[in-house]
Design goal:
The protein is mainly alpha-helical and 210 residues long. It contains 7 helices and 3 strands, in the order H-E-E-H-H-H-H-E-H-H. It has a 3-stranded antiparallel sheet.
């Protein structure tokens, strides 16, 4: 089924747009690594050269927006229906390796940070305008399979309004390398935490007013 993939990518698109990231393109096409679905953002520029333990306010702000955008794919897929935790593995791997280490230095701290960014993403996705934009982008992806950054951003803005801006760019997803043993365990722990969160959301959903 392509619908969960489309909603996953649409979550990245819309939340990234709202957080001021510059979208390059998005698709639900297969790749050579057995995956399907991709969303890419532009690099913010030469000013972004973060060092662990020495972030300035602008760097930390961007990293937090990127991490929230990473988590938005899972958040949107969860709201749409049954989330595929394994399908969100790349987002988790990428977040752990390239990003969350800038804001948390221990395994426990990194997992807690990821849960916090997931909470932020969920709060954005649950907004009525944001969800309408996600549904519209997902529908366009299902019809076209791929969208340019400008086309996807136009749809997102039509339904969700203006982005927060202020970044002058955003970030390109970096290349993957093999995970080390400790990183693999952190990914597994984060997936279990997200899976528990998904079950809790479904349980609460049955008691919420319509």
């Amino acid at each position: 089924m392509l619908a969960p993939i489309a909603y996953h990518e649409a979550g990245h698109v819309v939340v990234g747009h709202l957080l001021g990231l510059q979208l390059l393109d998005t698709d639900i096409l297969p790749d050579d690594e057995g995956g399907r679905g991709h969303t890419h953002f532009a690099h913010p520029g030469s000013w972004f050269q973060p060092q662990r333990g020495r972030l300035d306010a602008r760097e930390r702000d961007l990293i937090e927006r990127v991490l929230t955008t990473f988590m938005a794919g899972f958040a949107a897929e969860s709201r749409h229906g049954e989330a595929d935790v394994e399908g969100s593995g790349y987002d988790l791997d990428q977040s752990l390796r390239e990003w969350v280490g800038y804001v948390a230095g221990t395994p426990h701290g990194r997992e807690a940070a990821l849960r916090g960014f997931l909470e932020r993403a969920v709060s954005i996705v649950e907004g009525s305008q944001a969800w309408a934009a996600i549904e519209a982008v997902a529908a366009a992806l299902l019809a076209e399979e791929q969208l340019s950054g400008s086309a996807a951003a136009q749809i997102a803005q039509q339904y969700s309004g203006h982005s927060v801006g202020g970044l002058g760019g955003s970030i390109h997803l970096l290349e993957r390398g093999p995970l080390g043993p400790s990183e693999k365990q952190e990914v597994l722990d984060a997936r279990r935490a997200f899976s528990r969160r998904g079950r809790e959301d479904r349980d609460l959903g049955s008691t919420r007013p319509g």
